[in-house]
Each structure stands twice: as C-alpha cells, then as structure tokens.
Design brief:
- The chain has 195 residues and is mainly α.
- 62% of the residues lie in helices and 7% in strands.
- Strand 2 and strand 3 form a beta hairpin.
- Helix 3 crosses helix 7.
- The structure holds zinc ion (ZN).
- The site of zinc ion has 4 residues, from helix 3 and helix 6.
Amino acid sequence: MTMKTFDQKLWQDRAWKLYQQALSRVEGKKGKKFSINDRMPAGIAWKRDTIAIKAMSTVLAWCKTRNVRVMFCDIPNGEYANNLILISIKARAARQFNYLLHEIGHHLIDSSRANKIKKFPLGYAKSNDTRACKTFGHRIDVVGEELEAWYRGGRLASKLKVSFDRKFFDDDRINAMRTYFKWCLRTHGYGKESI
Ligand SMILES: [Zn+2]
C-alpha cells in the first residue's frame, strides 16, 4: 500500500483541481444558463478545503511533538494504532482534517491507558476476547470511546486555535456515530460485522 506524507502545496493543488472539475461538471449540465450562483457550492467546498489544509499543517506539527506519525493511504476514513494515524488519501482535505482530529482523539485516550481501561473497561480493551465482544456492554463502551475521541479531537482544534468548518466537522461526527449506534443496537443490517 502506498503511503504519503502531507504536502501543503500538493494538497492545495489537488483542492484547486477538484474545484475546477466541479465547475466544469456544473457548466456542462447548465451550458449557456451557467451563472455566478452555480459556482457557489463548488466555491464553498474549495474554501473549506483550503482552510482545512492550513489547519492540518498546524495540527500535524502538534502530532510531531507527540511522536505521532500521520500517513495518507488508500483506506476508508481513518485508523489509529501505536502512535500511527492513517488517513484516507482519497477523501478531500476538509474530510481528512475531520478524521485526523478524530484519530488524534483516540491517541489522546490511549495515551492514558489506565484511564481508558477505567472509563471503557469492556470496549476496545476486550477486542481480542470473542465472548466479551458479543456483549451489549462491549458495544456500549466502544460507542463511548468513539464519542469521546470526537469530543477530544474537537477540543484539541479549539486549543490550537485553528480555524475550521465546525458545522462540517459535526456532520462527519454525527454520521460516524450513527453507524456506531446502529451497530451497537444491532439495527437491521448492522451488528454482525465488527467495527
Ligand atoms: Zn474511531
């Protein structure tokens, strides 16, 4: 699997390219009726990406001080284990930033292992115990940790005073938690797979 490190210039070029592509898609559909208002959604997404790219470089500098490595590769969303954060390379910058904050939240929870086990005793700590994994208590503690990881990531961004689209962050947080809640309650179609 190819892994990339963050490169501000490359990310900005990519965001610009996505903006241009979005514009030509709308223009292709609208033809002569293409107006300034049709540029709006693509423009908003591009602006959100550029703000996120700037914020990302600040947050990545913070990661360095904590010895947390961050790599971008072909995975969905993000992952965290042993001071290594992986983020989807295909996601656009604003979404990468949200997932980066969330995975940092997992790092912050993990860095106080005793506290983590005290708070979420039946959750990820029991992931290797097949019997424990089948219990509702396990799923509740996983959900608890996921909620906390989002909360801590958002709090770090405020602490570092980076500007970012908080509404967009909350949308990603809510969507991710919706999946976890469905899994937790074994809503139809969920619960058989492991998270
Ligand atoms: Zn998570």
